[in-house]
Amino acid sequence: MKTTNKLYLLALAxxxxxxxxxxxxxxxxxxxxxxxxxxxxxxxxxxxxxxxxGDPMSFKASDPExxxxxxxxxxxxxxxxxxxxxxxxxxxxxxxxxxxxxxxILEESDEHQFYFxxxxxxxxxxxxxxTYDDPSGELIGxxxxxxxxxxxxxxxxxxxxxxxxxxxKNYPGADNPNFADFASAGGESDLDITFPVVIE
Amino acid sequence: MTxxxxxxxxxxxxxxxxxxxxxxxxTHLCNLVSYILVYTKKYLxxxxxKLKTSLLLISLVLLFCNQVKAQNCSIVIRGKVIHLENNExxxxxxxxxxxxKQGAVSDQNGNFIVKNLCKGTYTITIQFLGxxxxxxxxxxxxxxxxxxxxxxxxSLNLSGVEIHGHRDAVQTTTSVSALYGENLLESRxxxxxxxxxxxxxxxxxxxxxxxxxxxxxxMHSNRIMIMNNGIRLEGxxxxxxHAPEIDxxxxxxxxxxxxxxxxxxxPEAMGGVILVNPAPLPTKKESKTNINLVGGxxxxxxxxxxxxxxxxxxxxxxxxxxQASAKRAGNIKSPDYYQRNTGMSEINFSGSLGYSAKKIGMxxxxxxxxxxxxxxxxxxxxxxxxxxxxxxxxxPFTDGEFTYGIINPKQRVVHHLAKIKSxxxxxxxxxxxxxxxxxxxxRQEYDKRRGDLNERPSLDLxxxxxxxxxxxxxxxxxxFSGTWGLNLIQQANNNVPGTGVTPLIPNYDMINAxxxxxxxxxxxxxxxxxxxRYDYRSxxxxxxxxxxxxxxxxxxQNLSAFLGGLYHINADWTFSSNLGSAWRPPNVNELFSEGLxxxxxxxxxxxxxxxxxxxxxxxxxxxxxxxxxxLEITAYLNPIQDYIYLxxxxxxxxxxxxxxxxxxxxxxxALFYGIDVAGxxxxxDRLNGYVKGSIVHxxxxxxHSYLPFIPSNRMDWGLSYDFSKVTDSRTNKxxxxxxxxxxxxxxxxxxxxxxxxxxxxxxxxxxxxxxxxNENKLNLGFQVQNVFNTxxxxxxxxxxYFTYDMGRNILLKINYEx
Lengths: 200, 818
Description:
The complex is a heterodimer.
Chain A: H1 2-20, E1 38-46, E2 57-62, E3 74-75, E4 78-80, E5 85-94, E6 99-100, H2 101-107, E7 112-117, E8 128-132, E9 143-148, E10 156-165, E11 188-199
Parallel strand pairs in A: 4-11
Antiparallel strand pairs in A: 1-2, 1-5, 2-3, 5-6, 5-9, 7-10, 8-9, 10-11
Chain B: H1 2-16, H2 24-46, H3 51-70, E1 75-83, E2 94-97, E3 102-105, E4 111-117, E5 120-127, E6 134-140, E7 145-151, E8 176-180, H4 181-187, H5 192-196, E9 202-207, E10 211-216, E11 224-228, E12 231-232, E13 253-257, H6 262-265, E14 272-277, E15 286-296, E16 301-311, E17 318-329, E18 333-334, E19 337-338, E20 344-356, E21 360-374, H7 384-393, E22 410-425, E23 430-446, E24 459-475, E25 480-495, E26 507-523, E27 526-545, E28 548-568, E29 573-584, H8 588-592, E30 594-597, E31 602-605, E32 613-625, E33 629-655, E34 658-682, E35 687-700, E36 705-706, E37 714-722, E38 732-741, E39 759-772, E40 776-785, E41 809-817
Parallel strand pairs in B: 1-7, 11-14, 31-34
Antiparallel strand pairs in B: 1-4, 2-3, 2-5, 5-6, 8-13, 9-10, 11-12, 13-14, 15-16, 15-41, 16-17, 17-20, 18-19, 20-21, 21-22, 22-23, 23-24, 24-25, 25-26, 26-27, 27-28, 28-29, 29-32, 30-31, 32-33, 33-34, 34-35, 35-36, 35-37, 37-38, 38-39, 39-40, 40-41
């Protein structure tokens, strides 16, 4: 009997220990690594010899809090000249972490691709045309060429930029930068922003 | 209304008293039956079942009464054998009627039946190993005889004799169904949720084919409780895609309690309780090994499990068990394509050591559950337009191919559970019990991300739970027995830093203390039980959102109670009714969710001001056990006050990533009600038929709308043919079954996609048992599920938005016991 009593005491002591020694830890703030806060379209006008003309122009869409909650992102209006050729670079960053996400996209170039949709690119009389011109030769869309029509039917249009992740790049039609049916190539959207554009 | 019942009672009374006075006892009984059935009718009436059903039942009873009158030698003895010390049923007790030279063996629930006896005086002898033999002299008149026998443990008085193993059986007057023996053997290789679908009234809420949560009468997750060998399983059970962390192979029996059992098991046992119990440990020299091998064509699944039980010869009362299982499966095939990234792997282990002596018993138990699950690639959508595109397509855009590889998104879950349990017999009638359990749940969820982030989980939670139970049981030779106890739960939840994602739920500490008291009165065929419980819960939470610390301190308390009764109307009929109150404090996710749910392209917002849910569940069950037929009808009514649900606000949230639906947690009053039916009939000694079905209604009574993800009407029926001779106990049978699932017509106002159409599946199973040597048993099973490779979607599968369900699956199951 005495041993049993001791056993119970031991068990109780063990319990007291485990109950007191198991509190939750203090929370640690997390910096959202996956977050995209800024997407910038950088247009550099080119002449007939593909040499730069003047200074590059930047148009930015930003959402300082990222995706979780908060306000609607602010998107600048893209302003382009008609009958011109531009080199368009896209820069994607996480301002909270001070992280260059463009570099990450290029590292995983086989899994990412930008598509350019909206009234600016889609339709018979769309004012802009896009061609992939990535330095690696692979179709990613971090760099490309945009040509504006000499006599656009409208001077107000929309550029919808979609970044697809984990898509099947060999899917028929996936090599078209204006592939409206991008969803059928699989994958998911990392970005889906619409910039207003004015062509003067 | 009342007068109508009285009239009908007297009406029946007149019918019955038409019989000659010599059979007065039967008349009384039949009166009682009719009377009770009239009341049943009242219950059923409330449960909105057509009056016709109850009229049919009454005519059945009257038919039965006529039969009794007609035959002289058709008296039945129906009994129950239980342990005196703890009221646990005794299985395999031997019952002998000396004068009639007839015997019976008690079943899993301690029940036995001896039929076709003539009028006269009989001596019943009941024997069970390690227990005093009980003899009883009874006089059989014309009426069936019912009695509960309590066997006394010999070890209490004599030292050195056999000691029996302990297992806590469910002693409740509410509706209970169990999966064991042959049925459990047939379910081997399936996860817990899938296995439990074999019980009527239980379905699953699933996320693809690997994650399925059991649903009892329309409730799941935090509204039901799962017990792993007596300890309430504490994982992150709030999540729809968080499957119970339990290995079905450790169970020797899986029991489902369908009533509200908050008093006995604590808060949250609102819709029911699932008990996963291993067999009791041996207390004498014994050595048994059980090996299971399961292979399936779909997903090229392989599953191996082994268990070894042993009892010590040198130390009396010392026994142990070790058990392990491993499972591996690759991509699941829908009829037309492979579902990408739907493989899984699982490795589980459990061990226990027990010692039983004269006055004391101890058990130590440990179980480890370890799984890695792939989540269908296409279910991880970037934004609302992605989601809409795949819903419109109805299936993944790519065909996929077979692989065992698992990539992101995926889940890794490790669950440790350790417990010690002990009891001490204070006296012959009083027993003191102590149980302590420790659990550590680590859940890691990996999302499809960029670069090195793919190596880091997006959700990494560590949940520590301590549970302590201290209770006394008392059993007396007179009719009272009961349990008084204290229950403590302490929990600490941590977000493991480094995920690079604002945590979905905060870090928290929770303490729940409960005191309860239950008493049961049993006399002859009647058992009445009542209980009351008080709980206090305190929760402290803390989390950083955008570098801002948010914390809160919340308290909840509640009183719950139940009242239940069970009546053995006669040898064939049993009726039980149970009314229980239950409560559930809001869960941390309901209070504090704030973030994106990728699978639903939704932003979910919690509400820290939510109140506790309070409910009543009234459940009635009528059981019939005839010579050739068996019938079980369960009807329930379950109103819930302040039911917490996720409501689509109709707003969308716009971000750089696209748009998302916004959902918020709200409260409203809800009403659940429904009926389960299970029956079987032996057409001949070889041909047997069964049918199971359930209907659940769940309404938001404030909005007059239906609640989402409630199982649609379903039915499962089949025929089996037994090739073996009646005298041969070895199984050798083939079963053809058909599962019919209706379209959910009671769907909510908002859903991402309409409910899928109705479907029918056909299955074939063949089971054969061989004896090898003296005691070794080999069970072979061959099954074809979804024989016609039907393309279907189930309303209760959250992945119905993205894909069709699993296609044909051919399984081979080998079980060897030696």
